[in-house]
């Protein structure tokens, strides 16, 4: 008997966990962010995870997060390509942001667990996500954000199974930023029959997770290496895919050799000649010169610079 036809993943492929551009007063700079999103979608990205960890979502208030999403859509970034982070410590804020994402036209939202309280059992997380699913009222796929290093609340296979059975078609997938490939592999294998979409949170696992039947990646380093991620997704195997995966591995290593968000801001700032990309909200800080030179040298050594298709702002302005 032939295998049943799988439902295509909504965000299958390479999704950059997009940086949030800011003005000098630390307010969101949606014009610059939209320009960056357009470049990403034109250079290897199938979709964009906005307002996640790399986008500093938890440094923004509820209204700011709404304004950023609305501003991107108003500037022509397709809502269907956006997976905004909507998970908050507050149940009501999570529901409000998830409904807002749905109403803006987004097909999916990425939800952290309620991260303030530690040691929460699976029953508590199940109750929380049950309330989110019911109060949101459908119309948008929910993706679980497994990042125990930050949230201290991992998603067990047993919890995922309960959520899939309770909310079929609504709980659609997971971004696994645990860094534990065996965990990602177990998720793919356990829930393949449910069309559960597993996205690696690390570029280094893209080729491997695709070979397992995973959906792709949602990654921070995608802000600067998505060109090579697109090659891996398109080719999967063979010399070209292997060479592109090697660039992903090297750029990921370079990006994580310094504070990750500030390091990626440095790469984009130097590549565009736009120093405003270094602006970051406290408690995060810009890199000092030594760290800035280190991450740049790492990308150079990986053969990733200049970033394909990204020209300095001064060059574009002269056209």
From TrEMBL:
The keyword Transcription does not apply. SUPFAM superfamilies: Aldolase. InterPro entries: Aldolase_TIM (IPR013785), DapA-like (IPR002220). The keyword Oxidoreductase does not apply. Keywords: Lyase. Belongs to the DapA family. This is Dihydrodipicolinate synthase family protein. It comes from Craurococcus roseus.
């Amino acid at each position: 008997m032939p295998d049943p036809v799988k439902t295509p993943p909504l965000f299958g492929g390479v999704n950059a966990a997009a940086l949030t551009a800011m003005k000098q007063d630390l307010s969101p700079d949606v014009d610059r962010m939209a320009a960056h999103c357009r470049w990403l979608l034109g250079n290897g990205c199938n979709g964009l995870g906005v307002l996640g960890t790399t986008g500093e979502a938890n440094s923004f208030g509820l209204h700011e997060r709404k304004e950023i999403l609305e501003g991107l859509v108003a500037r022509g970034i397709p809502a269907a390509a956006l997976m905004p982070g909507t998970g908050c410590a507050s149940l009501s804020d999570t529901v409000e942001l998830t409904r807002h994402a749905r109403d803006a036209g987004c097909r999916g939202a990425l939800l952290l667990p309620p991260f303030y309280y530690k040691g929460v059992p699976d029953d508590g997380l199940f109750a929380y996500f049950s309330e989110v699913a019911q109060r949101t009222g459908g119309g948008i796929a929910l993706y679980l954000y497994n990042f125990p290093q930050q949230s201290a609340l991992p998603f067990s296979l047993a919890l995922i199974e309960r959520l899939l059975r309770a909310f079929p078609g609504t709980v659609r997938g997971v971004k696994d930023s645990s860094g534990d490939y065996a965990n990602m592999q177990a998720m793919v294998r356990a829930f393949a029959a449910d069309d559960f979409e597993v996205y690696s949170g690390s570029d280094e696992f893209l080729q491997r997770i695709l070979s397992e039947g995973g959906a792709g990646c949602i990654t921070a380093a995608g802000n600067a290496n998505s060109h090579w991620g697109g090659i891996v997704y398109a080719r999967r195997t063979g010399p070209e895919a292997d060479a592109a995966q090697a660039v992903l591995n090297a750029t990921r290593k370079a990006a994580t050799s310094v504070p990750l968000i500030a390091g990626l801001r440095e790469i984009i700032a130097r590549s565009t000649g736009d120093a405003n990309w270094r602006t970051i909200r406290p408690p995060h800080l810009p890199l000092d010169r030594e760290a800035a030179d280190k991450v740049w040298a790492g990308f150079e050594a990986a053969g990733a610079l200049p970033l394909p298709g990204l020209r300095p702002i001064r060059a574009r302005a002269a056209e």
